[in-house]
Amino acid sequence: MDPTISPDERRTAFGRIPSRVAVERDAAGVWHVRGFAAARALLRGDSTRQAGFKAELVERVPGRGKVPILFLEGRPHHEQRRLTAPFFTPRAVDTRYRPLMARLADRVIADFRRQRRAELSAMGMEMAVGVAAEVVGLTDSRRRGLDRRINAFFAGGLEQGGGWLRRIRQALVAQFRLLRFYWIDVRPSMAARRARPREDVISHLLAQGYRGTEVLTECITYGAAGMVTTREFITVCAWHLIDDAALRAQYLAADEPARHALLEELLRLEPVVGTLFRRTTCPVTLGEAEIPEGAMVAVDVRAVNADPAVSGERPLAKQPGRCPAQRAGAPVLSFGDGAHRCPGSFLAIQETDIFLTRLLAVPGLRFEREPRVGWNDLVTGYELREAWLACE
C-alpha cells in the first residue's frame, strides 16, 4: 500500500480509497476533479455556476422570485455575500452568539445527564437548530418541532424518479412540507421582524423587499447549510474523540485555538459535504484537461483533502497540528472555496467546540452503540444516526 496514503482512520468513507487521478471524465460525461490545485483553480475561477444542493427542490417553490444566495453568481452574489457577511464574522460569532451557544449546550448536556442516555445526532441537531435559528431569525414558530420540520426536507421523499403515481405523491409531500414550514415557522418569524427588525437574516431579507416565498427559499437554504451539516460535523467529531482516549485528552487540555485546529483536522479527514458540483459556463482548462462549456464538474472533496500535495504524508490519518501546503486552510476544501465558500465556517467550528467541551467532560461518557453510517444525497455525504450515548 502507498505509504503516503496509509493508514486510513476515516469512519465515513465506506472503505473507498481516494483516486490519485487529478481530473478525468467518466462514461456519463461528468468531469471529476480530485487534485487540490485543479479544484482550487476551478472554484476560484469565474467559468462555472453552482449545480449542487438539489436546485430542483428550491425550483418547486411556486413563484419563488429572487434567486437564493446559494445559486446566485457574479456581482449579485458578491453583493449579497457582502450584505450578509456581518452575521458570520468571527467577531459577531464570538460576541453575539457565544452566550447562546453556551446556554444551548448546557441545556442539551443537562438533559443527557438527567436521563443518562441520549442519541448523539439528535443532540447535535438540537444544538445546530438552536444556533442557526437565531442567526437566520426563525425564532417565532407557532409551535415546537422546528428541528423535525427542517429535517423533513432532507430525510427522503423528495427524490425524482419512479412511476407517475409515485411522482405525484412526491410532489404532494414536498408541497406539504414547504407549506407547513412556511406557516408554522417562516411566516410568524417574518411578522415579528416586520414589527421589530433584528440583526438576523430574515430582517435583512425583508429590508431588501423579499416576499414570503423568497424568504422561505432562503430559510430552506440556510436550513441545509447551518443545521443539517453542522449536526453531522458535531457527531463525527464526537465519535473520534470519544473513541480515542489520547486525542480526547489532548483536546480537553488544549486552549481554544488548538481545539479549533483539531476539529478542522477532523473535518479535513471527514468532510460533511463530499462533492461540490459546478456547471461550466465556458471552456475550462485544468492542467492537461480541456473541459467544454456546459459540462457537469464534480469536485471530490474527500479526494482533494487527501491529496498528498497539499496534506502531506498519511493524509487519511488524523494528525492534529498538520499544516496543509499551498496556503490551504486546515480543513482544506471542507468548507468549499472561492465565491461560494461556506460563510458560516467559524460559526460551525465555534458551536461544535462549545458543545464538545461540555459533552466530553461528562463522567462515564461512553457509546452504547456507535453511529450507523448512511448517505445523504443533498450534501452527497454521510449521515450518522442511532449513535446512543450513556453516562454515569
UniProtKB/TrEMBL annotation:
The keyword Iron-sulfur is assigned to this record: no
Name the CDD domains on file. cytochrome_P450
Q: Which residues form the signal peptide?
A: none
Q: Which SUPFAM superfamilies match?
A: Cytochrome P450
4Fe-4S as UniProt keyword: no
Q: Mind telling me which PROSITE patterns this protein's record contains? A: CYTOCHROME_P450
Origin superkingdom: Bacteria
| Keywords noted in UniProt | Heme, Iron, Metal-binding, Monooxygenase, Oxidoreductase
A molecular function (GO) held by this record is:
iron ion binding
Family designation: Belongs to the cytochrome P450 family.
**How is this protein named in the record?**
Cytochrome P450
The beginning of the lineage is: Bacteria, Pseudomonadati, Pseudomonadota, Alphaproteobacteria, Sphingomonadales
